[in-house]
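Input.
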Amino acid sequence: MLKNKMIHVILTVFFVGLFHSTSFADVKFKDNVVRLSPNFGTGSSTEATTRILAPFLSESLPGNPKVIVEPIEGGGGTKLARNLLKERGDGHRAGVLAILHITASLGRPMPIALNKLKNVGSFAFPTIIMVRKNLGLNDLQDVINYKKEIIIAASKPNAPGVSPLRTWLIANNVNHRIVTGYAGQPACVAALQAGEVDVTPLNAQLFMPMRKTYEENGAIPLVQNGLLNPAGGPDLKVDIPGKSVMSIDESWKKFTPGTVDSNEYTTFRFIQKSFPMVMHWAMSPDTPDEYLQVWRKSFLALFKSDGFKKYLEKTNSPTPVVISGEQVDETVKSLDQAKNDKAIQSVVKRLKKKTL
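Output.
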């Protein structure tokens, strides 16, 4: 009798689930429109990258809805996160929460209650270190040995793109100066070309389509000898078309092998492992699960689409490192560990300062 009841319950659950299940094609978007909201405004690399990806997202979502990009900036990128937490999500909008989890990985409390959001997925392009051509810098050793002070441009002292470079400089007792407050990476490159600063990090995806223009205007990449910031962890090899590139971890070990047991090296590896979270897509906690699953599937499909692959080929851009919504869930759970790591915290305190 008990066995028959169990079978009945199992079959009931199965058929109820089958009846209520929603296939990918069944999800409909009202007015056939969805929204992507980057948390930094016009002129930022976050906004520019979001606009590049919008057409490919449209192709991967069911019904090919129109994708509208609506930046919501403020609070160091946290205003959008707060809005998403309060929003009664209907599955029609995802936020692009750039760098907030990287902030958390540097040992500070998790910004807002990001662990309550529903995660679509995340990705990151490699970061290339740009230098003024007339400085004569060709590799990492030149950066260490340069007689004069080198001025580094960034949006903030511990911005994701510049943190690994500054961590490496700290390990080598090099006291170059950083100038902050620039509105996005393009503004940093403009300052570099104008001669205001000497070095700045730049998203490789933004660099590759413009590299000839940048080089003609005196800004060149330090990639031939390996100062490349791979966006998937310190050991990942990222190939730049036409360039011979080591990972930054290989470069670190080659140029300063005596520092691999240092607190700086520990911090560097921790930052690098959390780098795929640079461009984190999330939705309101109230988002219906069927919409979340469609967004997750479409997010991964975007980066595998023929259209996106052709875009990478056309612009000679590196392939980004992409992680799924489930992988984001796990990353979010692990980010708080840095707060209890004294080795990391000793370096993070220095990364927050404008001078090393």
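The first strand starts at residue 33 and ends at 38.
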